[in-house]
Write a structure and sequence with these properties.
Elements lengths: L11 H8 L4 E6 L4 E6 L7 H6 L15 E5 L9 E4 L2 E4 L3 E9 L3 E5 L5 E12 L6 E5 L2 E7 L1 E5 L12 E5 L2 E6 L2 E6 L3 E5 L2 E4 L3 E6 L4 E3 L2 E4 L3 E6 L4 E3 L9 E4 L3 E6 L4 E3 L2 E4 L3 E6 L16 E3 L2 E13 L4 E3 L2 E13 L4 E9 L3 E6 L4 E8 L3 E6 L4 E3 L27 E4 L3 E6 L4 E3 L2 E12 L9 E3 L3 E12 L15 E10 L4 E5 L5 E6 L4 E7 L8 E6 L2 E3 L6 E2 L1 E3 L4 E7 L22
Parallel strand pairs: 3-6, 5-7, 6-8, 7-9, 8-10, 8-11, 9-12, 10-13, 11-14, 12-15, 13-16, 14-17, 15-18, 16-19, 17-20, 18-21, 19-22, 20-23, 21-24, 22-25, 23-26, 24-27, 25-28, 26-28, 27-29, 28-30, 29-31, 30-31, 30-32, 31-33, 32-34, 33-35, 33-36, 34-37, 35-38, 36-39, 37-39, 38-40, 39-41
Antiparallel strand pairs: 1-2, 4-5, 41-45, 42-45, 43-44, 43-46, 44-48, 46-50, 47-49
Length: 597
């Protein structure tokens, strides 16, 4: 699955295909090369599949030689592979070098054409420069920085235009950082740590405070271990190669990462991948912050994809918690998000197949062209739509016979929709609960919606086919724009409206004609309509909604399979498979005069 940033390499025709949520293949020509690009709207992506589409880091021998050259930064002297010119120490050969002491205003430069690895052991070293980067690699095959003891790097506040370096720790070659020691980096002008090729962090306790980006690897940034604490005015962790479709990715395999960023917490030109480890992010001041109109600080941003395959991710972002121009896949792990805009956003597609996703605050919780909940435990709190399967073209007028017409005259897209096949989905929304500009299909799992309390929105809002053939669905909310699954839905439903608003904490029991309880629901919000679909509901039979009593046993979003009906009162009755007058059925049927005024 290889998909490029459409704004850079993909032609206009393919961009249109991406926005439509379709699959397409095209040739993107540059002045010197031609690249075949395959795009997809399939978000069923694992960490291994995402990495298979990328160029992995080269294997590097992390073992430093016992035959090392000692560099006393308090009084450096020349040696084999080492020259000293004033306050500039230059390493000219591959090998192992141990740096200790203090270089108050100078720099250590690596410049060698040798094949092999330059091992730099920082052993209680403190380097600062008032004019450039204190530790810079200008030419080398591979460089490994070993951390021992406590080490500090601090660069200039302004680089000369002719200076190749631009970070307190700068490398023009592939760079690996490892060891058991610590490194404190002060990026006073630009970035804290930057590699023009690839960057791997395999160990150490690393603290970065940078004016711009915290840690940047142009080709890739891979974290396999260690403890990172990054404060950045720009992006926290970043990879920005926009010339090679197999590069420009950020991958976290293990370790602990804590990021406070003015812009994105993690920003990948292609894929942002969390395989394991613990990641905490505050982006743009957090979800309560007010940011400039042209700013969009996201927690995790991957232009092609964001893939979570394990570990723990905690995000507090002024914009989207997770955002991608392509697809988002959450296949395992634990994700907790507080977002100033969308909780999780994928332009093309979003799939949650396992793990735990808890969106504690958002404007829209889950948003993408195609959304699939196939497993896991998902909880969404949103001030607007809880789950929104949307497409920019979904509100355009349809040509005759081109697509089903949603109420109000807008076209229901057949390429946009929500599919629920497993897991649990709990939604608390101020706007529509489950909103699909196209289809909504449910074949399994449990979905519980506590929808809007105003009549301008509905707990369910589907413009196309609305079919339930498995699982359990309960949607409670206002009645002004309420709707049900289609009349020809494979699994039946029962829809209740109440003569008066039921208040927070009301317990509703769904009973069949014999008084047998199918479900009990304790509301967390006011509601006046309730739709319940399950395998136990039989079309044509009469059911009642009784209020009072209690809910017993385990609950999902307030829904349980049993309760205590002692002292309950039947509030209303309904016939399964029929929408009550005033309610809009699904577009394929269900009765009612339609949802839109």
């Amino acid at each position: 699955m290889r998909r490029l940033n459409a704004t850079i390499l993909v032609p206009a025709a393919l961009v249109a295909a991406l926005l439509a949520g379709c699959s397409a293949t095209a040739d993107a020509a540059s002045p010197d090369t031609a690249t075949t690009v395959t795009t997809t709207s399939d978000a069923d992506v694992t960490v291994d599949q995402a990495m298979a589409a990328n160029t992995a880091p080269d294997d590097v021998d992390l073992t430093a030689s016992d035959d090392e050259v000692a560099i006393d930064l308090d009084a450096p002297t020349g040696a084999d592979g080492l020259t000293v010119d004033g306050s500039t120490v230059t390493i000219t050969a591959a090998g192992t070098y141990r740096l200790s002491g203090t270089l108050t205003d100078g720099s250590v430069v690596v410049s060698t054409s040798d094949d092999g690895v330059v091992h730099l052991i920082l052993d209680g070293a403190s380097l600062a420069s008032s004019t450039t980067s204190p530790l810079q690699v200008l030419d080398a095959d591979q460089v490994v920085v070993h951390l021992e003891g406590e080490n500090v790097l601090s660069d200039t506040t302004a680089y000369a235009d002719t200076d190749e370096a631009g970070a307190a720790l700068f490398s023009s070659a592939d760079l690996t950082i490892t060891g058991d020691g610590s490194l404190t980096v002060e990026g006073n002008a630009n970035d804290g740590i930057a590699a023009k090729d690839g960057l791997v962090i395999a160990g150490g306790t690393i603290t970065v405070d940078a004016v711009d980006d915290g840690i940047r690897g142009k080709d890739y940034l891979v974290v396999t271990g260690g403890t990172l604490d990054v404060t950045a005015g720009g992006d926290g962790l970043k990879s920005d190669n926009d010339e090679d479709a197999t590069l420009g990715y950020v991958e976290i395999i293990d370790g602990s990462v804590d990021i406070t960023a003015g812009d994105d917490g993690i920003a990948a030109q292609t894929d942002a991948i969390l395989a394991d480890g613990t990641v905490g992010i505050v982006a743009g001041g957090g979800h309560r912050a007010t940011v400039a109109a042209d700013a969009s600080p996201k927690g995790v941003s991957g232009t092609v994809s964001v893939v979570v395959g394990g570990g723990a991710l905690l995000v507090d972002a002024a914009d989207d918690g997770i955002g991608s121009d392509g697809v988002v896949s959450i296949a395992a792990g634990s994700v907790t998000i507080a977002a100033g805009d969308d909780g999780v956003h994928g332009d093309q597609a979003l799939q949650i197949s396992a793990g735990t996703v808890d969106i504690t605050t958002s404007v829209e919780g889950l948003e993408a062209g195609l959304i699939t909940v196939a497993g896991g435990d998902v909880s969404v709190v949103a001030s607007d739509d809880g789950v929104n399967a949307s497409d920019p073209d979904a509100t355009t007028e349809a040509a005759p016979g081109a697509a089903q017409q949603a109420p109000g005259g807008s076209a229901a897209s057949t390429d946009v929709g929500l599919t629920i096949t497993g897991g649990t989905l709990v939604v608390d929304s101020g706007g529509d609960g489950l909103d699909a500009n196209g289809f909504l299909t449910m074949t399994g799992g449990t979905a519980v919606v506590s929808g809007p309390t105003n009549d301008g929105n509905g707990a369910l809002d589907v413009d196309g086919t609305f079919d339930v053939s498995g699982g359990t669905l309960l949607a409670a909310g206002s009645s002004g724009m309420a709707m049900t699954p289609g009349a020809d839905s494979a699994q039946s439903f029962v829809a209740f409206t109440f003569s008066s608003t039921q208040t927070v904490g009301t317990v509703v029991h769904v009973l069949d004609a014999d008084g047998t309880e199918l479900a009990a629901f304790e509301s967390s919000k006011d509601f006046s309509s309730l739709v319940y679909a399950s395998a136990d509901v039989v079309t044509g039979q009469t059911y009642s909604a009784a209020t009072g009593g209690t809910v017993t046993g385990d609950t999902v979003g307030g829904l349980a399979t049993a309760g205590d009906t002692t002292g309950t009162t039947v509030a209303t009755t309904a016939t399964a498979g029929e929408a009550i007058a005033g309610m809009g059925g699904g577009p394929t049927g269900g009765g009612g005069p339609g949802r839109r005024p």
